[in-house]
Design goal:
By secondary structure, the protein is α+β, with helices and mostly antiparallel strands. Strands 4-3-2-1-5-6 form a six-stranded mixed β-sheet. A six-stranded mixed β-sheet has the order 12-11-10-8-13-14. The protein is globular and about 65 Å long. Belongs to the peptidase M24B family. It comes from Candidatus Enterocloster faecavium. This is Aminopeptidase P family protein. InterPro entries: Creatin/AminoP/Spt16_N, Creatinase/aminopeptidase-like, Creatinase_N, Pept_M24, Pept_M24B, Peptidase_M24_C, X-Pro_aminopeptidase_P.
């Protein structure tokens, strides 16, 4: 593999030379600024060998560097080892950012090449401003990676289907009306939307073009009295299950029934270039540089967060009730998996991949299960110290009757999306391991038990989770929580829980009733062990009094936490009460769905501490 990477970089440099490019930037994103992308778009992975979901590769005539975040430091170091690519650990002291590096490395008057469809408009604007002092030229319409990619996979074209309002809660007609009202309030004549989950939510349309993310490759233009959907029309032809009953119409007939014109996917940029004199509502950070360059000069731009992003984050009452059902199903599957793992899995010499496959079998037994919501992280021992570890055939670890096994997984159900992490004790632990396990547990419990005044953001609440770890000089290098979609992307903005301020408060919104957020503190000791405990929590209104509207969280996830990992000396009386109440409800909700021997085990597994 290392030799292949060197050959690919060599071919890339030859292509750069042909086009007069001195530095080539390759992003992770697809044409829609998606977090996870289809195989057609994995140019950065093809050129570097790094398989993580986030990273930026820069190749110059002399060197190559790859930037990624703390989730992937250990993984990236291993996957890049033996290649010329230097790992740049984003956010670490002394590590320059991508633009800072380009400012230093590029010579005056040289040329930066990239595919503008995969780079955000906001980044493109910032790059031009930062690099103009060195008179850097931009070649933003070059897919150089695609030019040298041998046997590149085809662009996905999987069938799309309609999500029934019995699951969506609100019809697409009503969602479009609401969007148009917001456009009118903003004074916009047209709205351009390219983010796949926003389009899927707005139209109640689901697809299969991105692994584990039920979205279809599409662009959308919405005016007051018309709309155009740019999509491969072939994926709309079939009659597909709606989630409630078989559709009486094809997805194509459904879309046309909404008053939407269906246009070829690849015609979008030409159509965008024809917009003249419009007042365009779009979000610069969520459209790409190629689109921005076509519309910015000839129209007035209203740069706002996509209205659909805020709307879909607040689950409606139908979605909330469905989510409770989905998590009960998922809770049964994961609880049965833990029982199997402790009673059979370890004794039978199971490896990480086989364990993940067994968990998938339990989920497939649940009615309405559609597939994983992301690739399962199945990590034993020191592998769990890589918080986004991916087990590989032929090199994954065998589970042994000692230490920790971490599994981070989720499912897509008609009733919604789940995401859960459990760290499971397989055998004897050290004092330090028990201490770490307990502190992570306490962190999760305290965040979930938070009461707060309306107006708080996750930026404020993050301290509730980190304080137990910070007291011991410990921390974890990822956010504490992210929003979760409804039968959509497992990572959804704008709600998040993290003490680090991102680019804007759009990415750290006020917590509203109906928002679903993960609660997932962790601790990772390189070369030894990794621990994460994750539940999904639903934001709810609590009491309202003279001080204002108070808010609280409701658990959606119901799966036992391994009592064998707990050292109660690191818990207060309140911590113990929080755990005992959680476990009381786990047993109450999950045990009726288990066979007798598993019920008995669950009774012991949820005993009060």
């Amino acid at each position: 593999m290392k030799q292949q990477i060197e050959k690919r970089l060599g071919r890339l440099r030859q292509a750069m030379k042909r086009h007069g490019v001195n530095a080539c930037l390759v992003e992770t994103a697809d044409f829609h600024q998606s977090e996870y992308v289809g195989t057609y778009f994995k140019s950065r992975e093809y050129l570097s060998g790094f398989t993580g979901s986030a990273g930026t590769l820069v190749v110059t005539e002399q060197e190559a560097r790859l930037w990624t975040d703390g989730r992937y430091f250990v993984q990236a170091a291993g996957e890049l080892e033996g290649t010329e690519i230097r790992l740049m650990r984003s956010g670490q002291e002394g590590v320059p950012g991508v633009l800072e590096y380009l400012e230093e490395a590029m010579e005056e008057g040289s040329c930066l090449g990239f595919d503008g469809r995969t780079v955000s408009a906001a980044w493109g604007e910032l790059a031009r401003r930062r690099l103009q002092k060195k008179k850097i030229r931009f070649a933003g319409e070059l897919d150089l990676a695609g030019e040298v990619w041998e046997d590149r996979p085809a662009l996905s074209a999987r069938p799309a289907w309609v999500l029934d309002t019995a699951y969506a809660g609100v019809s697409a007609e009503e969602k479009l009306k609401s969007l148009r009202r917001q456009m009118k309030e903003e004074g916009a004549s047209v709205h351009l939307l390219i983010s796949l989950d926003d389009i899927a939510w707005l139209l109640n349309l689901r697809g299969d073009d991105v692994k584990n993310n039920p979205v279809a490759l599409a662009y959308l233009m919405v005016w007051e009295d018309q709309a155009k959907l740019f999509i491969n029309p072939d994926i709309l032809k079939g009659k597909t299950a709606s989630g409630a009953d078989p559709c009486r119409e094809t997805a194509e007939e459904y879309i046309r029934g909404l008053g939407i014109e269906i246009c070829p996917y690849n015609d979008f940029y030409e159509a965008a270039g024809q917009l003249q004199g419009e007042v365009i509502l779009l979000e610069k950070e969520k459209v790409n540089d190629a689109l921005w360059s076509r519309v910015a000069g000839n129209n007035r731009i209203l740069d706002r967060m996509n209205p659909t992003s805020a709307a879909k984050a607040v689950k409606n009452p139908v979605e909330v009730e469905n989510l409770r059902k989905a998590h009960l199903k998922d809770g049964v599957a994961v609880t049965r998996f833990i029982y199997w793992l402790k009673h059979e899995g370890v004794r039978n010499g199971t490896d990480e991949i086989e364990a993940a496959q067994k968990l998938e079998e339990f989920r497939k037994e649940q009615e309405g299960y559609l597939g994983p919501s992301f690739d399962t992280i199945s990590a034993y021992g020191s592998n769990a110290a890589m918080c986004h570890y991916s087990a590989k055939e032929g090199s994954c670890a065998l589970l042994k009757p000692e230490g920790f096994y971490l599994v981070d997984s989720g499912g897509q159900y008609y009733e919604g999306t789940t995401d859960i992490t459990r760290t499971i004790v397989l055998g004897p632990l050290t004092h330090e391991q028990k201490k770490h396990f307990t502190l992570v547990l306490v962190s999760m419990l305290r965040l979930a038990a938070s009461r707060f005044l309306y107006g708080c953001r996750g930026l404020t609440l993050d301290y509730a989770a980190r304080e137990p770890l910070w007291n011991y000089g410990l921390d974890f290098n990822h956010g504490t929580g992210h929003g979760v979609g409804y039968l959509l992307n497992v990572h959804e903005r704008p709600n998040r829980i993290c003490f680090r301020v991102k680019d804007s408060l759009k990415e750290n919104a006020v917590l509203e009733e109906g928002m679903v957020t993960s609660d997932e503190p962790g601790l990772y000791i390189e070369g030894s062990h990794g621990i994460r405990t994750e539940n999904l929590i639903l934001c709810r209104k609590d009491e309202k009094n003279a001080f204002g509207q108070f808010m609280r969280f409701e658990y959606l996830t119901w799966v036992p936490i391994d009592l064998e990992g707990i050292d109660t000396q690191f818990m207060t009386e309140r911590d113990r009460q929080l755990l005992n109440e959680y476990h009381r409800q786990v047993y109450e909700k999950i045990s009726p769905c288990l066979p007798p021997e598993e019920q008995k085990w669950l009774k012991d597994a949820t005993a009060a501490v």
